Amino acid sequence: YEGTYEKVLxxxxxxxxxxxxxxxxxxxxxxxxxxxxxxxNCAIVALCHNTATPGDYETDxxxxxxxxxxxxGGKPVLDTLKSYDNMVRSPSKESLRTALQDxxxxxxxxxxxxxxxxxxxxxxxxxxxSGSEASSIRQWARSEEVRDSGVIWPATKAIGNQYxxxxxxxxWLELDDFVDAIPMKLDYLILDACLMGTVEVAWAxxxxxxxxxxxxxxxxxxxxxxxxxxxxxxxxxQADLRTYCEEYFAYYDNETGSRRSGxxxxxxxxxxxxxxxxxxxxxxxxxxxxxxxxTHAQRYYYSSSSLRFYYDLRDFAVCLGATDAELARLDxxxxxxxxxHAETPNFFDLPLERCCGLSVYIPDPFRVKLNTYYSTLGxxxxxxxVE
Length: 387
Fold this sequence. Notes:
Elements: E1 7-15, H1 20-30, E2 42-50, E3 64-70, E4 76-83, H2 93-106, E5 112-117, H3 144-147, E6 156-157, E7 161-164, E8 166-172, H4 175-180, E9 186-192, H5 199-205, E10 209-214, E11 219-220, H6 229-234, H7 241-253, E12 263-268, H8 272-285, E13 311-312, H9 313-320, H10 324-337, E14 340-343, E15 346-347, E16 350-351, E17 359-360, H11 368-374, H12 378-383
Parallel strand pairs: 1-2, 1-5, 5-9, 9-10
Antiparallel strand pairs: 2-3, 3-4, 6-11, 7-8, 10-12, 12-14, 13-17, 15-16
Helix pairs in contact: 8-10
């Protein structure tokens, strides 16, 4: 195909961690889809970083830039375009930017979309887990009673990390660095990583993507849907993000037991200003009620989760005591900003009863460091949760 591509789907799978096997399966599932051939005006390009063998976090295995296409005879082909032999860490701003700039040079396109798959912890800064606030059960409440209850939940994927020798030494990619690494405007960004369906994340990525697909809860290691990905993203004039979200939800909603656990939201990032405009006056008018909402608002973390920062945005407004008029304005803004969201009845042992699709942080007086960091986020500057 001579000249500019019409649509390029970028898959970034950073799996130099315990997700390596899952991410390789994602790449395999992707090949079951309707793949473009070499003559197509669409392309699928993958940046993959996996361990040489599962559980080996010491052997170097360089990230690869791979084109996924339909070859002669209809067989799927993985064409390795480049091996980043000197890229020691893939989840870094420099590494990700280098690879994405290479993709832009090799595949100049009118439209780009990206699916990013790895671990994720929402907007939380790298290293906070090991901070001094972490000693309090209130902060990181993987309490002994819960840990010893004998319940073993399915594994989830926790934006992007890499194990350095062992899982104890995980190096994370900061959200700001992730955003800064993206050199092109994306039509959509799909975050196949835990807890990324936060209003703070949506606000942070709004300048690099029009639409965001993410989950306000964690995501089981099966991840998002890959066998229909190419069809949903490339077959029509526009990416069919709603159908993609519906397929994702149906997959988890049809599971049984604790595996019937999944949430998804489609966010129109161009409508987030109106959401902030509707939410800020509620915060301002009911500020004295904020800390009381920590125990009452719909949460998005289950009983033994150590990441206890995520609450439903609308239910937080209800808990604050928003008036009917304030809620009506907020609901109109939510309807515009979140064209689709869906939740299974529970996520593990957490009932999902009052969900609007996006989570939000509720400032906790016991989390001084985290609150200080939060005050710097763009969303907070728009709504002044932390003054």
